[in-house]
Amino acid sequence: MNPIDLLGPVVRRRGSLDRTRAALARGRLTVGFLGGSITSAQTGTRWPEPLVAWLADAFPGVRLTVENAAIGATGSDLAAFRAEAEIIARGCDLVFVEYATNDFGEPTDRRTRTREGLLRQLLRDGRCDVVLAYTYCPEMQPDLFAGIVPSTVAEFEVLADRYRLNAVWMGLHALREVRRGLLTWEEWLPDGLHPEKRGSLSYAQSVMAFMAEALVPSGGTAPAPAALPPPSVPGTWEQVRLLPFSAVTWTGPWSVQRWEGCHGLDRALVCTAPGAGLRLEFAGRGLLLAFDFGKTSGEIRYRLDGGDWQVTQRDCPAWAGEAGWLRTLLIDEALPPGPHLFELETRPGPATAGRGTRTVIGLIGVMD
Predict the structure, then answer these.
(1) Helix ranges restricted to H, 270-346
(2) Which end of the chain has fewer CB atoms within 10 angstroms, the N or the C?
(3) Do 46 and 195 belong to one domain?
């Protein structure tokens, strides 16, 4: 038997799509997407495009709204802070979550807390149907070719079992198409990671097949939402909130600017001078910042509650542009209860790397 055959089914059904069916019956369906560049709408060539076209064709009388909140090179940590404003508040009935690829390099305990916190936000009070979507990245290949489910997928499957979530392993579907000669590797992944139109269609077709079966009328009344089980681990990123930039005080030439660099975030704190400072008083158990990062970015030093200064030394890979990478920095997630003081100072990037002095903060998130 080929090891790829040992990886199980592409579609893993565990629950219904009752909220989606109810929305279709009302004649209005809002579909949300959370994920990285494989799901982002930026290029117009990813798998949500053919999936949305299929939905519009299959349900011509339904008013269809799409909220694609996926952002390239971001993971479930950032999504935990964006879900409320960009998915939940916009009334999504059906949400696809795609982070098996972009969470690949994170430690198990960290990505379990971020993923479970995100899922619990989406599932509270029966807000929407959630479907997990697993794509492919080259780092998965050794496991896949040995018939082993990569840990980033296996850990999502544990959460899927706990919360009775449907999942579609789109990457496995495409890989099996390649093995059968129905799709060439170059058609699937022209750059080794991102499907373009042909590969994205393969991804979408696996979801279409699942949806076509799952949306068959059941003939019964949709059950009331079940209570969520307790979290599987302590410290999930469920209770989170965004702080407005008005909560920050500064020294130096900072400004709040309209930000066109990242969809979903329309304002940013911007400074191009080294030695400028920020102060933030907050109450919570954790703090996360999201920076617009790239080759023109500087570094920062920061401290909490008057402790030792910590200096960032962020890598800037060759694929990074001058800016445009929404990059998170977790300051802490295990602070004692009570008020805290965060201080930051801008610094130039390393001269040896040709880096600049630009600091752009797009999001300040607090965990309660």
Answers:
(1) none
(2) N
(3) yes
Domain-located, residue 235: no
Q: What pTM was computed for the model?
A: 0.96
Name the burial class of residue 304, with classes exposed (0-12), middle (13-18) and buried (19+) by CB atoms within 10 angstroms of its CB. Answer: middle
Report the Cα–Cα distance between both ends of the chain, in Å, rounded. Answer: 50
Pair (209, 77) in one structural domain: yes
Greatest CA separation found in the chain?
Answer: 67
Could you tell me if residue 123 is left (phi over 0), alpha (psi between -120 and 50 degrees) or otherwise beta? Answer: alpha
126 in the Ramachandran plot: left (φ > 0), alpha (ψ -120 to 50) or beta?
left
**Domain check: are 273 and 337 in the same one?**
yes
3-class DSSP state of 86: helix
Scanning the structure block, which residue is given the tokens 């965004």? 242
Question: pLDDT tens across 253-300, in order?
Answer: 999 999 876 766 889 999 999 999 999 999 999 999 999 999 999 999
Element (H, E) at 68: strand 63-68
